[in-house]
Amino acid sequence: xxxxxxxxxxxxxxxxxxxxxxxxxxxxxxxxxxxxxxxxxxxxxxxxxxxxxxxxxxxxxxxxxxxxxxxxxxxxxxxxxxxxxxxxxxxxxxxxxxxxxxxxxxxxxxxxxxxxxxxxxxxxxxxxxxxxxxxxxxxxxxxxxxxxxxxxxxxxxxxxxxxxxxxxxxxxxxxxxxxxxxxxxxxxxxxxxxxxxxxxxxxxxxxxxxxxxxxxxxxxxxxxxxxxxxxxxxxxxxxxxxxxxxxxxxxxxxxxxxxxxxxxxxxxxxxxxxxxxxxxxxxxxxxxxxxxxxxxxxxxxxxxxxxxxxxxxxxxxxxxxxxxxxxxxxxxxxxxxxxxxxxxxxxxxxxxxxxxxxxxxxxxxxxxxxxxxxxxxxxxxxxxxxxxxxxxxxxxxxxxxxxxxxxxxxxxxxxxxxxxxxxxxxxxxxxxxxxxxxxxxxxxxxxxxxxxxxxxxxxxxxxxxxxxxxxxxxxxxxxxxxxxxxxxxxxxxxxxxxxxxxxxxxxxxxxxxxxxxxxxxxxxxxxxxxxxxxxxxxxxxxxxxxxxxxxxxxxxxxxxxxxxxxxxxxxxxxxx
Length: 576
Hints:
The chain has helices at residues 58-63, 121-126, 128-131, 135-157, 198-206, 244-263, 275-282, 299-302, 308-311, 328-340, 360-375, 390-407, 484-493, 498-512, 526-534, 564-569, and strands at 19-32, 35-42, 45-51, 69-78, 93-104, 161-162, 180-182, 190-192, 211-219, 231-240, 272-274, 296-297, 315-321, 347-351, 355-357, 382-388, 417-421, 426-429, 434-437, 464-469, 472-479, 519-525. By secondary structure, it is of the alpha+beta class.
């Protein structure tokens, strides 16, 4: 008896009096008053089976232990009064068995699944197939399936084609290190696993495919953290003959559709900020709109003071904490935190019965009132002020804003999306002592900034855009360069020689010479999106078989040594 008629959560009051067959794992067995109670677990939830001595199935149920695999056929009946479990969908009923088959026995698991959250993660990853039996994780993968279904439905409705691009490609500069694959047939040559399908999807636009998407696996050999993995999944998108406004509107519609279909959430229109606005209002290019009011620029007010420390500061920035009167201990902690952020300290102003401040001696009444008015301070509010170079003060104030919101438990729930646009086209790399792309080298500059490309490249803005949710970057995209002359010039500004351009990107420039349409796109981090939607603590909770923070797989013990003959096949040897 290996089939089933219903999943556990489908056994409800509608089936009372009917015969059903369920199958799954023994979640718990209890003996009570001569009766045997067994909770059967499958991916949908639990259902209770109950039997008494001399009844069919009783002997088999007495033998089962946790994680045995069983099949149970029986009649559904209502639970006795007072025994209903409202926490599960099948909690109003139970199954009285007529037949029980033990399909598979099980050793005692290395950890208690009911207490897995208290178990070392390394042990859970080593026995990931057991960890995945937990309902919390199973629900994450149900959500993953639902999100992907909604994504595919949306793109099908909008006329996109799902096109697979190669996983074995050439190494191109995209910011992170490549995972390299040696070629057996071409000694000394290597493939690279794709960091993104970027160039391929642009070539699909040259081919006239017009609207492309792909659920793409991508690979980046970079340092890991809670929301990063060496291999992860993107929702990759590219469109032709659409301007930035059309792309942003359509991708916003995608997210609204996904949230409505999977979570039943109606998202409001997304606010939009330029990169410059985001940095000055929130000190970050991925603002968390939940963390209270935006920053306030107090430079003009400070320059009217007699106190040279502020009057001569290049920038003065404030963090307003509405309706909160911190203790002296908290204020001292924030002063130390500001020092750690590189601003040397901070000035606080607390608006109680009167205005009091750590710098009252130097600000005097006039300065205190000036800062209070300029920042819109109200009775009960607190103001934290930092001063210094703009490149330091705004990010530091942004970090303080977030730290204060966390410590005062003011990060409210909800889904706070926004678009950040007009990123710088270039950044200066101190490490490499040269210009580098802020996004990637295929990003279209703002048309009105093109005259400054030769004279002041760091001031040139790009037609790039990010989607941010609750302070996390979810997606990044841009309009692309499609004229070969402009693309070649961008490569030159980035320091590539004519020979390097031809070697690394000659095929792309040649493709553009055969008629490339205006195009643009975006890539969503699917795993990161799911982590936020599921309320998971780590991206590992939404990936079936993730790597550790060191990039290892404890279950498969990967990476692992290989047979020397395999190295010989690809013309490699290990030098220690």
